Amino acid sequence: MEFMSVLRDFFDKGGDVLYSILFLSIWLSWLILDRYFYFLRQHSDRVEDAMRAWQHRSETSSWFALVERRSLISKVEVEMSRGLKLIPSIIALLPMFGLLGTVTGMIQVFDVMAVLGSGNPRAMADGVSAATIPTMSGMVVALAAIPFATQLERMYQDKLQLLNEMLKIGDLST
Fold first, then answer.
1. Is 140 inside any structural domain?
2. DSSP H helical segments within 60-120, as ranges?
3. What percentage of the chain carries pLDDT values higher than 90?
4. Does 15 map to a domain?
5. For the chain, N or C: smaller number of CB within 10 Å?
């Protein structure tokens, strides 16, 4: 119960922008987990399917074989990259939403200063909290996600290169 109270206070002090940052954080986490699950559980099945289809060909050097090879690779590549390009975009958006929170928090500070003057630091503290908490939240989530995004991109590139090597092209000189 204490945790919920602290969480509620955090969101109250941070302002409405924190809800957007929370939504983006949940979406980002889901995308990252989905891609890890795919690479760890489903990718090998897709590669096996492509390998089986390629090995059932009687020849692998004709123009039609090359088109089918490219098609097999593309099917696996589309599955591998699903949602992968959204991850860096969301990482870039998170600090922007944090800065939006900074701007809205500073507007609160200036509104308080306009109404009560600069002699009431308690009244300005809410605006300062609303200005700093979203910035910190957006940056923390973005910085925490960068290593995962980098690793997933590396996994994508490595597995794509390996798939290209596994589906060997026959001798084109014949």
1. yes
2. 63-81, 86-116
3. 52
4. yes
5. N
Q: How many domains does the chain have?
A: 1
Inside any domain, residue 172:
no
Residue 124: other Cβ atoms inside 10 A = 19
The closest alpha carbon to 112, from 126, 125, 124, 130, belongs to 124
Sign of CA dihedral 101, 106, 107, 113: positive
Residue 59 belongs to a domain: yes
Distance between CA atoms of 168 and 126, rounded to whole angstroms? Answer: 64
First to last CA, the chain: 75
Angle, CA 95 vertex, CA 34 and CA 146 arms, to 5°: 40
Q: Which long-range contacts (CB under 8 A, 24 or more apart) does 40-44 make?
A: 42/79, 43/76, 43/79, 43/80, 43/159
pLDDT tens track for 73-113:
999 999 999 999 999 999 999 999 999 998 888 888 888 77
Q: Which domain holds residue 156?
A: 7-166
